[in-house]
């Protein structure tokens, strides 16, 4: 008979245990969650923001890069360069940013002369803008981006080496064209190249930017570029210039280090004179350099400070082009 | 009356709850422990083990380095070099490892020709051993060590630049003399320099070691060297050689990366011929290179694997010695 009674506390105990267990499970989950949240992902810390959930990549995409080339009024050169870049090792895909508004893309002709080992995608634009090449293209599957101007040829060997350097410095712009800013006593910045010297540097030279017209950088920075202040886009559109300076500001701000790593090219050429269009690049415009100094000062205002840092590191390939390039007087 | 009976299951329930709770607490602790153990310390991962609690450093010691120079039978050269290195920027202290057993140190004469800006400490040794220079000297106050052979002169400019490079690669051996190992089809390794080529490298060359006879490295590695297998010390003592190869193994094992970063020197000289002692370095011995290949293979056995990794990065100073050293054909 007491069994009857005793089932009651028994059932009560069952319920308590049930509640208790569920509480315990929740606590466990909370603790696990909290501690897991503490785990830093070293890789990601170094990577641009939005890369924290990387896209799913085809196996081939992991150890390869995407070439992004913006073209305007130089279709003959473009095809010459596309042919050259078809033979570059580790090249996953080519994205051509077609700034010839209203003009037909040469896709038919390109395909008729195939087969081509590396796929080429033509991205037709509606406005001829400098910063069109800085979109976060959905066709982009690789972490590594090689951005090239449409009048510049870099040897396959230089590109293969620079890509291996980028893999060791993935948060930097790894490229072949260094530039610098100089702060003048007036507090106004000046933009220039090797001809511009800063007495403060002592022996040797320094650079604070690596131009993206011939450089590797992380595709995450294209995503980051979409989240910049409107004033940056306005500046780039107003000048049709300085998108590369803006990218160096972005990377320097992101890393707190010099934005670029300069790789000394063995063979880089400007093919501008080879085009039949006779079109010569915007950097020939009288105001080009003045504009770029103007942009540096504008960007310092927009970002409320000068993030660019100096570096004096120049990287070459050990034992190339000749095995003795590293031998010294010893 | 049934209460009497029912207290029993009640107590049972209490005990069960007690057991259950304690189990839960243990599980919680285990989960917490496991997850906490997963937290990596990024800084430490890059630094040599024992540097996790760095020594208290004088302010001057933070941005400076200590020169460690072992000397044997070349006191005239030693004094010449000590004079040269007195003028090196960022030099905090000089530690001379005195391997001239039973011979008086030239401290009196050195002091009589003072004052000298940088303090020099003579460490008198009781046995003439190659690895004497790899002690964890109590006089060492800086994180950065510059180790130099007593017959090698590197220009102040090269040292200043290499130190700035080391500050960017503190877990590597940053130096001026690259070497490599090659694995032969037989599985036996061979040691050599630029004259030794590996078909697998394709264009250019590679290196897998940077010799510590003219290099910067983290003082923590001297502490790590004290905790190596006895067989390593036996090998170095038996050959009076290979202490630098052992250090490259140690660093490569620690970092999982290439042990060294090669900085191309502008002016490095071997002053051996300048000594009146007529003593010429051990690397002239017929067996020197054979010994070093022997050491590589021995160390692979001792460490149960080949930790050395190849690099083809060569770093030079941008714009030095001439401002155009970075200009290209463009």
Oligomer category: homodimer
The CATH topology of chain A is Spore Coat Polysaccharide Biosynthesis Protein SpsA, Chain A
Q: SSE order of chain A in H/E notation? A: HHHEHEHEEEHEEEEEHHHEEHE
Count of helix runs of chain A? 10
CATH superfamily of chain A: Spore Coat Polysaccharide Biosynthesis Protein SpsA, Chain A
**Global Rg of chain A:** 27 Å
CATH C-level name of chain A: Alpha Beta
Tell me the number of structural domains of chain A: 1
Structure description:
Two copies of one chain form a homodimer. Chain A is an alpha/beta fold. The first copy, chain A, has a single domain, classed as Spore Coat Polysaccharide Biosynthesis Protein SpsA, Chain A. Chain A is 36% helix and 18% strand. The first copy, chain A, is built from ten helices and 13 strands. Chain A has an eight-stranded mixed sheet. A three-stranded antiparallel sheet of chain A has the order 8-7-9. In chain A, α8 packs antiparallel against α10 (288-302). The longest helix of chain A has 37 residues, at 2-38. Chain A is globular. At the A-B interface, α1, α6, β12 and β13 of A face α1, α6, β12 and β13 of B. β13 of chain A pairs antiparallel with β13 (313-317) of chain B. Chains A, B: Keywords: Disulfide bond, Glycoprotein, Glycosyltransferase, Manganese, Membrane, Metal-binding, Signal-anchor, Transferase, Transmembrane, Transmembrane helix. Chains A, B: Glycosyltransferase required for the biosynthesis of heparan-sulfate and responsible for the alternating addition of beta-1-4-linked glucuronic acid (GlcA) and alpha-1-4-linked N-acetylglucosamine (GlcNAc) units to nascent heparan sulfate chains. Chains A, B: It comes from Galbula dea.
